[in-house]
Design goal:
The complex is a heterodimer of chains A (163) and B (576). Chain A is an alpha+beta fold. Chain A contains four helices and nine strands. Chain B is built from 21 helices and 20 strands. The N and C termini of chain B lie far apart (74 Å). The chains are: A alpha+beta (163), B alpha/beta (576). The structure holds flavin-adenine dinucleotide, thiamine diphosphate and magnesium ion (MG).
């Protein structure tokens, strides 16, 4: 089962490696991990996507909580939440393809943020699925470069991850 | 008061009430050594290898319950310390290990004797710090002691770059009275609702077992545990790490459980309907195959670390909290509701247990020709009346000590269980003896293990530590040989310990007394002679039967009911 765990962690050097090290040492898998400081610059917020049985996810959250630098965490999977991911994708855009790609980008509400004679860079945010779908409508040979941030997530309404 | 970083470090140790630091100097800790030299409240014990420093601090901590402190230099000093740190980590022992580091401007430049100590130790510490500014030193040390000793204890490494201890940079010193960390709040009380649920379950039990572990020793829960066992009349077994928390000779004690546990303890685990696990972590040496573990039981688990609960075995009633308080609360509730215990069922359960006990699973064939290692341990017990601190190395001798030396107080049995570190015994005893100079401290060891930290015999000489070293010399890595006999058709690949030194001469060369015993009839008097030499370290080289095995044994991956018994008992087993 896919879980998305949001973590508030002390913004200290080494905090990221403690989390990454925990996952490699205990053989848990990390699908993606994003991290950046919050409005309170002493805190970083991580969003971590992982997969595992219920028992494994329980151990993962306990082990994360046990890290001395972790202040608080929530498994967003258990609450209504939103997820967004950013993708930058450089595509070959020549001749007839230029119009077609622009049209697809419009349909997906993506924006073209760089243009050369032969390529576009397209910026797109959305759920992971939406990004996957966009990739699948492009021809593989059109994709020159692709970079994704991995999702970040936030709970809806009253629920959430605050101190 | 204005102090340099080095002085601050030493002053913090004083303010923390540290009486001993076990260490070894080197370039990056020279400022600290200079500050140590100029005071006499914190005593520095010079070891002969950094692994020994950490094990000694560890032994001190296990025996006293207070944090052990070690000090090592950067690079090789830090890497040598790692085995000791991992040993303490696996057994949840509170340590503060201070490692020197190259000056901050050099970090990351592959400087002389630079290693990423924080990176290397990260997976085997409770937490670690790199102190980048002298202004952070006092608070970091305060945090280190706080983290090491609270909640589930463990080692904390503080990596201190040389420039942070610069004697020429002085700043005002203030040791924080306490620390608060928003990210670290260990549980201090078990949930009353869960405690009540646990008692409900216990009172209904017809075949209960209490399975107690190292957490009861660590968490000072021994008194409350004894009360609980007395109030309920239930049988109790212990892990290797919990021995001594309950008196080893009490009728209600079934002996150790697990891979080399007793027949009665393991069979009781297999048949129990309500298991109360206290400060124990369901290690694989204890559970055997999880699918066969306590197949008919509801399980209650008291542990201070939520991550220990339902890690290996799913439990029914988890109680997160410190053993002592939780057990006290449980005892209170049980005292009020004692009448609810199903006495006839418990009586019947005891009858079954006594039948298992009747097999006498620890029985061994005595000999007048050759000393049996079990007999050597029994002799040690007889001679000392059990009234010693006993440290151990790792192997068959460790298991024989656990089986044949009935500890009746906590903190008396000091061994490496989780990591199983050969070489632990002698340096650990150094730490114990520093803490309790007036008590007898003995080491039970093997000829392979003792060679791993033998250099600490010099430490014992320098600091006048009259330990008694009982070497059960079977000429083999006995535990390895045993596995090769059972599982590799007797192909004894590299488990014969060739080219042994003459241990008597070796001990003498370090300035100690060496004695060798080969005949069962001479053992007791030799042992008495050794313990009578109050102010000398005596190294007793006991030549024991090279072919003896540790029984019972549960093969890795088997269930509790699938024990191998000693060959001459296997037929009797059918009778039970
Ligand atoms: C050669 C060899 C053979 C071995 N054979 C056996 C064997 O046959 N049987 C056996 O039992 N072991 C055996 N061991 C040891 C085994 O590897 C484990 O170290 C041991 O079983 C763990 O003991 P424990 O469960 O008591 O846990 P410990 O490692 O002592 O852990 C303590 C537990 O208590 C918790 N705790 C700590 N403080 C508190 C507190 N204040 N309040 C509440 N909880 C607390 C901790 O969170 C942890 O979960 C062997 C080791 C070796 C080297
Ligand atoms: C540092 C280390 N290396 C290897 C092992 C694996 N090992 C466990 S027991 C053992 C043999 C110990 O031999 P000895 O000290 O003679 O004790 P005996 O079993 O003979 O009593 C070995 C090699 C270990 N536990 N620790
Ligand atoms: Mg041996």
């Amino acid at each position: 089962m896919r879980h998305i765990i949001s973590i508030l962690i002390e913004n200290e050097s080494g905090a990221l490696s403690r989390v990454a090290g925990l996952f490699s040492a205990r053989g848990y898998n990390i699908e993606s991990l994003t991290v950046a400081p919050t409005q309170d610059e002493t805190l970083s917020r991580m969003t971590l996507v992982t997969r595992g049985s219920e028992a494994i996810i329980e151990q993962i959250t306990k082990q994360l909580n046990k890290l001395v630098d972790v202040v608080k965490l929530v498994d967003l999977f258990e609450v209504p939440h939103l997820e967004r991911e950013l993708m930058l994708i450089k595509v070959r855009a020549e001749k007839d393809d230029r119009e077609e790609i622009k049209r697809l980008a419009d349909i997906f509400r993506a924006s073209i943020i760089d243009v050369t004679d032969s390529s576009y860079i397209i910026e797109m945010t959305g759920s992971g699925n939406k990004l996957d779908n966009f990739i699948s409508v492009l021809k593989p040979e059109q994709i020159l470069e692709l970079v994704r941030t991995g999702p970040c997530g936030i709970a809806r309404g009253d629920k959430g991850l605050v101190l | 008061m204005e102090l340099s970083g080095a002085e601050i470090l030493v002053q913090c140790l004083q303010d923390e009430g540290v009486d001993y630091v076990f260490g070894y100097p080197g370039g990056s800790v020279l400022h600290i050594y200079d500050a140590l030299f100029q005071q006499d409240r914190v005593r520095h014990i010079l070891v002969r290898h950094e692994q020994g420093a950490v094990h000694a601090a560890d032994g001190y901590a296990r025996a006293t319950g207070r944090p052990g402190v070690a000090l090592v230099t950067s690079g090789p000093g830090a890497t040598n310390a790692v085995t000791g740190i991992a040993t303490a980590y696996m057994d949840s022992i509170p340590l503060v290990v201070l490692t020197g580091q190259v000056p901050t401007p050099f970090i990351g430049s592959d400087a002389f004797q630079e290693v990423d100590a924080v990176g290397i130790t990260r997976p085997c510490v409770k937490h670690n710090f790199l102190v980048k500014r002298v202004e952070d030193l006092a608070e970091t040390l305060k945090k280190a002691f706080y983290i090491a000793t609270t909640g589930r204890p463990g080692p904390v490494v503080v990596d201190v770059p040389k420039d942070v201890t610069d004697p020429n940079i002085k700043i005002p010193y203030l040791y924080p009275k306490k620390v608060e960390m928003r990210s670290y709040n260990p549980v201090t009380k078990g949930h009353p609702g869960q405690i009540k649920r646990a008692v409900d379950l216990l009172l209904q039990a017809k075949r209960p077992v209490i399975y107690s572990g190292g957490g009861v020793v660590i968490g000072e829960g021994s008194e409350s545990l004894r009360e609980l066992v007395r109030e309920t009349g239930f049988p109790i077994t212990s892990t290797l790490m919990g021995l001594g928390a309950f008196p080893g000779q009490d009728r209600q004690f079934l002996g150790m459980l697990g891979m080399h546990g007793t027949y009665e303890a393991n069979m009781a685990m297999h048949e129990t309907d309500v298991l109360l696990a206290v400060g124990a972590r369901f290690d694989d040496r204890v559970t055997g195959k999880i699918a066969h573990f306590c197949p008919n039981a509801k399980i209650i688990h008291i542990d201070i670390d939520p991550a220990s609960i339902s890690k290996n075995v799913k439990v029914d009633v988890p109680i997160v909290g410190p053993v002592r308080q939780v057990l006290q609360d449980m005892v209170k509730v049980i005292q009020e509701r004692k009448k609810e215990i199903d006495r006839p069922a418990i009586e019947q359960w005891w009858q079954q247990i006594e039948k298992w006990r009747g097999i006498d699973c620890l029985h061994y064939e005595q000999s007048d020709e050759v000393i049996k290692p079990q007999f050597a341990v029994q002799t040690l017990y007889k001679v000392t009346g059990g009234n010693i601190y006993l440290t151990s190395d790792v192997g068959q001798h460790q298991m024989f000590a656990a089986q044949f030396f009935p500890f009746d107080k906590p903190r008396r049995w000091i061994n490496s269980g989780g990591l199983g570190t050969m070489g632990f015994g002698l340096p650990a005893a150094v730490g114990v003896k520093m803490a309790f100079p007036d008590e007898d401290v003995a080491v039970v060891t093997g000829e392979a293990s003792i060679q791993m930290c033998i250099q600490e015999l010099a430490t014992c000489k320098q600091h006048d530590l009259p330990l008694k070293i009982i070497l059960l010399n079977n000429g083999y890595m006995g535990m390895v040989r045993q596995w090769q006999e059972f599982f590799y058709d007797g192909r004894y690949s590299h488990s014969y310990v060739d080219s042994l030194p003459d241990f008597v001469k070796l001990a003498e060369s370090f300035g100690h007394v060496g004695m060798q015993v080969t005949k069962p009839g001479d053992l007791e008097s030799a042992c008495r002679e050794a313990f009578a030499m109050k102010d000398r370290l005596v190294f007793l080289d006991v030549i024991v039967d090279p072919s003896e095995n540790v029984y019972p044994m549960i093969e890795a991956g088997k269930g509790h009911h699938e024990m191998y018994l000693s060959p001459h008992l296997s037929s009797e087993r059918e009778l039970a």
